[in-house]
Amino acid sequence: MPLTLSVIVLTHFGLLDGSAAVAIDDKSFVVATDELNTLFVSRFASGGPQPVFDLDRDLHDFPSAKKKKGGFKEADLEGAAKVGDNLIYWIGSHSRDGDGDDCPQRQVFFATKLSEESDCRKALVKEGKVYTNLLADMIGDPKLKKFKLEEAATKKPKNPNALNIESLCTAADGKTLLIGFRSPITNGKALLLPLTNSAAITSEGSHEKAVFDDPVELDLHGLGVRDMVWHPKLNAYLIIGGHYDEHLNDPDAAKPKLFQWSGDKDKKPKETAVKLDELNPEALVLFPDDRVLILSDDGGLEVTPKIKQKDELKNKTKRQDEVFFRSVWLDVTQ
Questions:
Q1: In the chain, domain spans
Q2: What distance in Å separates the CA atoms of residue 231 and residue 151, rounded to the nearest whole number?
Q3: Distance separating alpha carbons of residues 201 and 6, to the nearest angstrom
Q4: How far is 178 from 167, CA to CA, in rounded Å?
Q5: N or C: more exposed end of the chain, with fewer CB within 10 A?
Q6: DSSP output for 104-168
Q7: Is the peptide bond before 51 cis (omega within 30 degrees of 0)?
Q8: Tens of pLDDT along 118-173?
Q9: CATH number of 3-332, picked from 1.10.10, 2.60.98, 3.40.50, 2.115.10
């Protein structure tokens, strides 16, 4: 099936970056920004995004820096995956912060559930507990020694081979979650790690550790995983491959690419003909009508207004119409 990128680029005002999202229905999606510890619902037929879930407020076990010295620390949510009709898992980048300091707020994995309330401010509720030992479980797994994750976890996130999780995807079986790494890239290949017991490790009172299936090394032409989604109509995964560091305005930097992959470990992902050069693709959102919305993280692009300063956004000194991210539809046709 050919994949066609719409020529119409949508603009979503009110958020600086759309870093992870899942569709709620055919007209709305819940989205995280990697600059705020808040989840939002964005609707195509209405105004700006509405906040529906505050990690610092609604997760009593979130390692909030507001309770300590140092001020705001972002969770850097980079991946989201929907399991069943209403359960959504979220994952932080698990990287160091921009200064290279350890950041527990980024080392989170948790679930929310879509409520049946009509008020969009009550659209998400906590499900289970926040799991904060995922990095330790990965470092301690013998199957992952070759990827040197312990060393990678000590580097600044934009450095070569620093640890940086960017994707969370529900596998074709509907149960396993696939954790996609933007970095490290080992022997030119991106790391994909299947997590098999997400419900167990996020259950209240559970003391289970994360259990991983064999890691998968993806040949994405030297790029890491920015996001991926299983598309049942294609019977394949769609994968955004991206550079470990944006170099957004560098014309010579490696451009993002869209791949299609069967899920067979012995088969390479195939690069599609879809061109993403004008975007900084960050997330893939599958909607009920089989279309896929590609979110673009525009925080560092020259196309975005210079007025958008991250610290000002966090302090809420800018209006919603002064910040935005873009998206474009990917159509799957017969």
A1: 3-332
A2: 34
A3: 40
A4: 8
A5: C
A6: GGGS-EEEEEE---SSGGGSEEEEEEEE--HHHHHHT-GGGGGGTHHHHTTS-TTSTT--EEEEE
A7: no
A8: 454 457 999 999 999 999 999 999 999 999 999 999 999 889 999 999 999 999 99
A9: 2.115.10
